[in-house]
Amino acid sequence: xxxxxxxxxxxxxxxxxxxxxxxxxTFVFGVDNLVTVLHLEETKNSxxxxxxxxxxxxxxxxxxxxxxxIGSSAIIESFTNYSNGYPSEFLFxxxxxxxxxxxxxxxxxGRALLWLLIFPISFLKTLLKDRCKIKIFNQAKSLPKPLRExxxxxxxxxxxxxxxxxxxxxxxxxxxxxxxxxxxxxxxxENSERHSLKLQNYVALYGLTRNVSFVFIxxxxxxxxxxxxxxxxxxxxxxxxxxxxxxYIFYLGFVKFYRRYSLEAVMASTVYNVKEx
Length: 277
What we know:
Elements: H1 8-27, H2 33-37, H3 47-52, H4 55-84, H5 87-90, H6 105-117, H7 119-131, H8 145-162, H9 180-191, H10 193-229, H11 237-276
Helix pairs in contact: 1-4, 1-10, 4-10, 6-7, 7-11, 8-11, 9-10, 9-11, 10-11
């Protein structure tokens, strides 16, 4: 399948998070210097000049979006994998290891710092999902038992027969571990155009929601600093609550689309194998 190197979804995945952060910094926290730096001050010239005046802002949002994507991948995605396990595991009802289960003390300290770094998400997840067991907040759901057994067997067959992977040590109790889901993804991407389009969309959606969630984490800490240490600030506890809830809501969206992306690769492999039989 041919893929455009620069898609509309890719652009929005970086542009929107960067724009949200710059907008909030400018109009909520009053960082007026951004207006001057990005040349957003009002212009009375022609329409063409008015349009050109927004180009630095567009470029700035896009580049900032890339930085946010790197940060969100390193922080939010890592927290998700540590606390829920990979989607290729929890889809098959593999129970995640305890959060502080790193093989080294340094690793556990790093995980504890990560938990604190994304406190709005980690606290709400612990409270609403882990303690209160509210189903709507559990997006890391497994497949029904008969379905996960059938799909696992088909995926193993694809890996063994089509990709020539040694699957002798693969068992459903471990899920599709060893990063083999990546192989299934590329196999489906090359062999099923219909499913590959859906996979691309899910990648864009989980990237967008992950990046936006990271934006609200940053805004939470900026708001907390302003509330505690900036005397002239108009920021109060309401902003902390709103930013926390938005960070968690978009985090749930990320887990949802992260799961759907993995599920699409798994189900597409299952259907492909059936057609080949």
